[in-house]
DNA sequence: TCGAACCCTCACATCGATGTGAAGGTCCAG
DNA sequence: CTGGACCTTCACATCGATGTGAGGGTTCGA
């Protein structure tokens, strides 16, 4: 598919798709006219990238961890350098902390919302 | 305490502490000489702000949700406007999705790391 | 009194993720 | 052949979080 369709199907601007490619997060073939040509799997890939980006990871890190994620692995072990392993471990821990913080605060928000509802079931609000 | 000590104790630059104040995330008293004066609780506050920031929330949102989080609530219900409630619900759900994505990918990384270790317990790596 | 180590404000710089638009090529339909 | 809807690259703009530094005040100790 071409960039327009991919943009449509992933809810991502063309600009960003080109940017992700530039950052090595997705790959695109080229038609004889120079147009980018994406295969079906790129849709999921882009969605995953968006998720990781939204979760706070920078493209530099996403690029590193992506190869370990989507595919049936086994072929990728030889690629794993010690630095790569270290980066992954570090990032795994960082993601754990991030998620903890997120969930802790989310729970506090949920608790607050519950309390508000219990206090004012009608939901009037702004009762200055 | 003054800004230097707060910076030291929270691992945050003075610049950022002033920025957080400008964004309404923390408050500071002022000494007669114009120096900022923080109370003890600000240390935890700053740490929490950093956590939320690192978890991907923008200061604008953090400012909205902070009042619901740290304190023993009950006084804050009258402040809760319907828009505020809506924002909180939205953000709670967004945080859930974010955390899910984070944990899913973290698990994938962890799984990959386990597989690598099982494959190469010695951890040689880079076996081009 | 001097200097060091604080503090202040203000403003410009940077970096990553993104938007926007210019200048131009390609393809298809009329 | 023309017009529109695609696509290309390039480059500048924006926005939030952050760094850096200039220009200047305060406090403290030698």
Structural overview:
Two copies of one chain form a homodimer. Chain A has five helices and two strands; from the N terminus they run ααββααα. With 128 residues, chain A is mainly alpha-helical. Chain A has a two-stranded antiparallel sheet. The longest helix of chain A has 38 residues, at 82-119. Chains A and B meet through helix 3 and helix 5 of A and helix 3 and helix 5 of B. Chain A binds a DNA duplex (30 and 30 nucleotides) through residues 2-4, 13-16, 18-19, 31, 33-36, 53, 58-60.
Number of strands of chain A: 2
Helical/strand content category of chain A: mainly alpha
Oligomeric state of the chains present here: homodimer
Q: Biggest interface, and residues per chain?
A: A-B, 46 and 46 residues
The major beta sheet of chain A can be summarized as: 2 strands, antiparallel
Inertia-based shape of chain A: flat
Count up the helices of chain A: 5
> Could you report the average pLDDT of chain A, rounded to the nearest whole number?
86
* Strand numbers in spatial order across the main sheet of chain A: 1-2
Helical fraction of chain A equals 55-70%
Order of helices and strands of chain A: HHEEHHH
- Enumerate the spans of chain A where pLDDT stays under 50 for 5 or more consecutive residues: none
Radius of gyration of chain A: 21 Å
- Straight-line N-to-C gap of chain A: 56 Å
Strand fraction of chain A equals under 5%
């Amino acid at each position: 598919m071409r960039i327009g369709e991919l943009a449509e199907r992933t809810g991502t601007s063309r600009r960003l798709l080109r940017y992700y490619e530039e950052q090595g997060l997705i790959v695109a073939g080229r038609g004889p006219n120079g147009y980018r040509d994406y295969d079906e799997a790129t849709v999921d890939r882009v969605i995953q990238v968006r998720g990781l980006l939204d979760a706070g990871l920078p493209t530099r890190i996403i690029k590193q961890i992506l190869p370990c994620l989507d595919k049936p692995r086994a072929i990728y072990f030889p690629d794993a350098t010690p630095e790569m392993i270290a980066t992954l471990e570090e990032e795994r821990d960082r993601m754990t902390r991030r998620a903890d913080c997120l969930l802790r605060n989310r729970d506090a928000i949920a608790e607050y919302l519950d309390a508000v509802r219990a206090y004012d079931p009608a939901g009037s609000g702004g009762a200055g």
